[in-house]
């Protein structure tokens, strides 16, 4: 699990460490790690052209010291000082000693010929979008040929929320220090940060326990264990699905299939799309009656394609009145937004899975702080909120949050939400992980499935169902190191 630490949490840990280390040690650690990543990206130092955009704070200091290291290895480094009178004095001296050139914001900056552009305008001390002329230089860097590398945080991005209020530096890579900040992996900040590289500067023991996390394949694999010799269809979790309708059985078919393919135990379906489900999934146990006719289940998935009429409302209320975990998706969200008391403070876990428009029906639009928004609704309803997006956010009522790392734009197509709901039902049915962890694991697996299903071209939702067993295998395999990266 990767902890996501806010700027204040990082600063508090830095303060403890600064008091115990010689002056400048932390910045040297940061600059050394930054220069090492730049060298890897450049492939060579000698003759490489590097332009560093340098603000007046310590973020600029990091860029200057890293520039000095690159210059000492033969790179042609130009530092563009945005506020020449306030540039980090020791960093500036080091760059000059190493043979780097220095110019003001109006001077010759080499941006249009640079092999690499370092963004040291502003880091965790920033407020709001970039000011001119930094905004102008950032736009030129993005349009130029150089690899763009943000120092700690892309300037203009809110390190805690990922909000961009105005202009921000568009980085292909971000080298961040001490801990990954939430703003690098969520919201608009995710798009500005590119690939995130974490440099250890020794903060670990001093960091407060993070309240937000990213799961890795290894974390998710722990919830996708193969069956053991004593397992049977009941011990692997029985999922109940209320979804779809006679006219639109598709959602029921996708949701049921996803639950079956995630953990092939037992799926019971109750509703008017029974014929469609029987035809597609003979493995499912189908009743055309009410949820109470379905037999014993361990978690319910309610909502995809079920409609919002009186009958659908009664079905949803019946499921929510049980003491079982319930996934509230799609049409069920519309009904829950009308009547929040249906879901508020149930004793068993409830997981709501809104996209932005569904979220707004609960009263307040998502806004730029997606983690904050999910936490607010989760606390208000006493439920887990899974807020869908490029980087899906999960929040529990106690504020524990997760940001998904495996999302792909290919998942933005009809029916993929029905598949996610089915995966989530399967992971909730065993009741082992806390519901927010199960929801985060479901989002992770859904993303991995999307990556797999779109490896050779665009996907449709039923491709996801077909690729689920492969994705489960991929996640398990990556976790033991036999396949691909860690998934973070
Ligand atoms: N502490 C440590 O030991 C370590 C810290 N480290 C590093 O320090 C960084 C934090 O440094 P920091 O606190 O000095 O603030 P920083 O991010 O440089 O910004 C302040 C400057 O930005 C300016 N500015 C603000 N908003 C702006 C905007 N929208 N657009 C343009 N400018 C804007 C603001 O201007 P002012 O408002 O004062 O006019 C001020 O000049 C951290 O991210 C990491 O890189 C590492 O070396 C590890 C050890
Ligand atoms: K920066």
Automatic annotation (TrEMBL):
The keyword ATP-binding applies. Gene3D superfamilies: 3.40.1190.20, YjeF N-terminal domain. K(+) binds at residues 59, 119, 155. Coiled coil: none annotated. Keywords: ATP-binding, Isomerase, Kinase, Lyase, Metal-binding, Multifunctional enzyme, NAD, NADP, Nucleotide-binding, Potassium, Transferase. Belongs to the NnrD/CARKD family. PANTHER family: ATP-DEPENDENT (S)-NAD(P)H-HYDRATE DEHYDRATASE, ATP-DEPENDENT (S)-NAD(P)H-HYDRATE DEHYDRATASE FAMILY MEMBER. This is Bifunctional NAD(P)H-hydrate repair enzyme. It comes from Geodermatophilus tzadiensis. The lineage of its organism: Bacteria, Bacillati, Actinomycetota, Actinomycetes, Geodermatophilales.
């Amino acid at each position: 699990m990767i902890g996501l630490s806010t700027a204040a949490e990082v600063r508090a840990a830095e303060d403890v460490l600064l008091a115990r280390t010689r002056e400048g040690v932390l910045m040297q650690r940061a600059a050394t790690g930054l220069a090492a990543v730049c060298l890897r990206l450049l492939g060579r130092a000698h003759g490489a052209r590097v332009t560093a955009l340098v603000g007046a704070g310590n973020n600029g200091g990091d860029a200057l010291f890293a520039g000095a290291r690159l210059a000492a290895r033969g790179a042609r480094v130009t530092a563009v000082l945005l506020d020449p009178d306030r540039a980090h004095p020791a960093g500036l001296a080091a760059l000059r000693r190493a043979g780097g050139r220095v110019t003001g914001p109006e001077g010759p900056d080499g941006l249009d010929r640079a092999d690499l552009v370092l963004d040291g305008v502003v880091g965790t001390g920033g407020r709001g979008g970039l000011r001119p002329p930094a905004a102008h230089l950032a736009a030129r860097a993005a349009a130029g040929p150089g690899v763009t590398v943000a120092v700690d945080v892309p300037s203009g991005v809110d390190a805690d929320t990922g909000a961009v209020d105005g202009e921000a530096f568009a980085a292909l890579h971000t080298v961040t220090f001490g801990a990954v900040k939430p703003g690098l992996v969520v919201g608009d900040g995710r798009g500005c940060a590119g690939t995130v590289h974490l440099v250890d500067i020794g903060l670990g023991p001093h960091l407060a326990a993070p309240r937000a996390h990213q799961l890795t394949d290894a974390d998710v694999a722990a919830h996708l264990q193969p069956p053991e010799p004593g397992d049977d269809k009941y011990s692997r979790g029985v999922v109940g699905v209320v979804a779809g309708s006679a006219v639109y059985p598709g959602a029921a078919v996708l949701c049921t299939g996803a639950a079956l393919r995630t953990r092939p135990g037992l799926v019971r379906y109750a509703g008017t799309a029974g014929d469609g489900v029987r035809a597609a999934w003979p493995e499912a146990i189908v009743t055309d009656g009410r949820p109470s006719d379905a037999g014993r289940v361990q978690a319910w998935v309610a909502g995809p394609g079920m409609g919002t009429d009186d009958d659908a409302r009664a079905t949803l209320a019946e499921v929510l009145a049980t003491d079982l975990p319930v996934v509230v998706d799609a049409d069920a969200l519309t009904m829950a937004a009308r009547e929040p008391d249906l879901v508020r403070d149930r004793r068993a876990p409830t997981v709501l899975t809104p996209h932005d428009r569904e979220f707004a029906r609960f009263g307040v639009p998502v806004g730029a702080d997606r983690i904050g928004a999910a936490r607010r609704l989760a606390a208000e309803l006493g439920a887990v909120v899974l807020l869908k997006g490029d980087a899906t956010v999960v929040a529990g009522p106690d504020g524990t949050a997760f940001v998904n790392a495996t999302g792909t734009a290919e998942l933005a197509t009809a029916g993929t939400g029905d598949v996610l709901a089915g995966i989530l039902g399967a992971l909730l049915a065993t009741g082992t992980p806390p519901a927010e962890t199960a929801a985060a694991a479901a989002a992770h697996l859904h993303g991995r499935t999307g990556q797999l299903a779109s490896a050779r071209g665009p996907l449709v939702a039923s491709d996801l169902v077909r690729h689920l067993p492969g994705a489960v295998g991929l996640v398990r395999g990556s976790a033991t190191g036999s396949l691909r990266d860690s998934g973070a």
